Amino acid sequence: MDSSLLVVIPAFNEEAVLGRTLDALLQEVPSNQVLVVSDGSTDKTSQIVLDKKINLLELPFNLGVGAAMRSGFQYAKENGFQKVIQFDADLQHQPKYIKEIVSKLNELDVVVGSRFAGNSDYKVSFVRSLAMGLLKDSVTRHIGKKMTDVTSGFRGANKKAIDIFADFYPSEYLADTVESLIMAHDKGLSIGEIPVTMQERQGGMPSQNIFRSTLYLFRSILVIIATLTVKPRKDN
Questions:
Q1: Considering the domain boundaries, does residue 14 fall inside one?
Q2: What is the tally of structural domains in the chain?
Q3: Theoretical Cys-Cys bridge with 45: which of 23, 41, 58, 179, CB 3.0 to 4.6 Å?
Q4: What is the pLDDT of residues 121-140, one digit of tens each?
Q5: Three-state SS annotation for the chain
C-alpha cells in the first residue's frame, strides 16, 4: 500500500461493528496509516481503537462527520500524508477499492466511490432516491461534469485537496459530501468517480425509514437552494 496514504474513519458510538471494520481494513492498510476520529463517542469506540494500536483522535462531543473529517485532514497535513481516504466505520465500504481510489488520485484531486456508476444494484427508498437525484443534478450543473453519486462518503483526496480541506471542510449534514464537492470545484480542484459496490450497514442507526427519508429530502432541498445561490470562492 502507498505509504503516503492515510485512511480516516469518522466514528460515533460504533462499538458494535468497528472492530470488524478495522480487522477488514487492516488486511489492506497498515495500522499506522489508519486514523479513527471518535466524534464524541460515549461507548467503547475509543477503547477498541486503542486495543488494536491504531491512531486515535477524540473529539469532546459529537460534531458530525464533516468536523471529524476536517480533524482527519489536519492530522494528515501535520503528519506529512499525501493522500486521504474517508472510510465508514459501519462496514458499508469495502477495503478492496482503496487501491483503485489511491491510483486515481494520481490523476484527480478528489475521487468519489460511486454506488450508482457501472452495474451497481444499490437500492435506496423512493424518497431518498429522489433527493439524491436532485442533489446529483444540482452538483453536476454547478461543476460542469456528470456525477452519479454526490452523497457517497467513500472518497479520496490528494495533497492539494488535503491542504484546502484542512483549513475548511463543511460540517453540516449533507454539506460534508455535497458542498465539499462544490467547494473543491470552486477552488480549482479536479473531481471524478470510480464505481464501487457497498454493503448494508452492519451497525448503528439505519436510515431507511419513512421519517428519516422525508427528513433527508427536506435537508436535500435546503442544500440544493444553497448550492444554486453559492458563488465561486476566490482566494484573496
A1: yes
A2: 1
A3: 41
A4: 777 767 777 878 888 998 99
A5: CCCCEEEEEEECCCCCCHHHHHHHHCCCCCHHHEEEEEECCCCCHHHHHHHCCCEEEEECCCCCHHHHHHHHHHHHHHCCCCEEEECCCCCCCCHHHHHHHHHHCCCCCEEEEECCCCCCCCCCCHHHHHHHHHHHHHHHHHHCCCCCCCCCCCEEEEHHHHHHHHHCCCCCCCCCCHHHHHHHHHCCCCEEEEECCCCCCCCCCCCCCHHHHHHHHHHHHHHHHHHHHCCCCCCC
| 234 within some domain | no
Q: What is the pLDDT of residues 44-85, one digit of tens each?
A: 999 999 999 999 999 999 999 999 999 999 999 999 999 999
Query: Which grid coordinates belong to 164?
Result: 484546502
Give the model's pLDDT for residue 222. 64
> Which grid cell sits at 26?
487492516
What is the CATH number for 111? 3.90.550.10
pLDDT-derived band of residue 118, with 50, 70 and 90 as boundaries? confident
Show the domain range for 144: 5-229
What residues pair up with 37 in beta bridges, in sequence order?
Answer: 10, 57
